[in-house]
Amino acid sequence: MATQNLCTVKRRGRVHLITLTGAGEHRLNPALLSAIRSAVAASAGAGALVLAAEGKYFSNGFDQAWARTAPRHLQATMGGEFRGLVADLLALPMPTVAAVTGHAAAAGCGLVLAHDAVIMRGSRGFLYMSEVDAGLKLVDFFAEVFREKVPDAINRRDLLLRGGRMAAPEAVLRGIVDKAVDGGVEDVVNAAVAEAEKLAARGWDGEVVAEIRKAAWPNLWSKVKDYGADAPAAAARPRL
């Protein structure tokens, strides 16, 4: 299944595999975020979810070029859609695994950390928070991703305030990434699918998984829940 030609969805056993397609940077603009959210919503009945990407980049963050040219009334859409995607992942009734097949920068790095487990390519790619270099502030929920998913203050400082590029071996040693995998993109995806299959095989109650996840990261959930797919209709959400 294709979603607006921006990502594909396949079933690999019990695993729902979403792949961002093409050799580009997978910049997170409203169209791509909406496509990913639609693909996540289509995961009903799967035992686990994996998000991967083709090409050199997992995601190079927000699409700043789009933001500079978008009409003012659409400016908040990109952040709102990303907040909604984080909410969708936290509320998803199954384990989630990020297959970091290439560079993951800024919002792309935040998207990685929104998953339950992270498998990263060992020989190529890095995690990079570019905001300090670009002179951009962190909005509340985005900062909360790092406060709750990177609880060690030194690791959080090095990601957010040093502007360094963290390769997989270092990220594993710091406990930010679960596993580094040698080889190419397919090797990383296969390892992530295998990890997801292992989690799916536990046969956990999906609703319990989702509720435990929300309880484990309560501050993050409180900041994104009104934007998720299951948010009350009355909640204010940006529109495309």
From TrEMBL:
Give the signal peptide range.
none
Which pathway or pathways does this protein act in? Lipid metabolism; fatty acid beta-oxidation
User: InterPro entries attached here?
Assistant: ClpP/crotonase-like_dom_sf, Enoyl-CoA_hydra/iso
The record's annotation in Pfam families points to: ECH_1
Which UniProt keywords are given for this protein, alphabetically ordered? Lipid metabolism
Which reaction(s) are listed as its catalytic activity?
a (3E)-enoyl-CoA = a 4-saturated (2E)-enoyl-CoA; a (3Z)-enoyl-CoA = a 4-saturated (2E)-enoyl-CoA
Spell out the GO cellular component terms annotated for this protein, sorted alphabetically and separated by semicolons: peroxisome
One GO term under biological process is:
fatty acid beta-oxidation
Q: Which family does it belong to?
A: Belongs to the enoyl-CoA hydratase/isomerase family.
Q: What name goes with this protein? A: Delta(3)-Delta(2)-enoyl-CoA isomerase
The beginning of the lineage is: Eukaryota, Viridiplantae, Streptophyta, Embryophyta, Tracheophyta
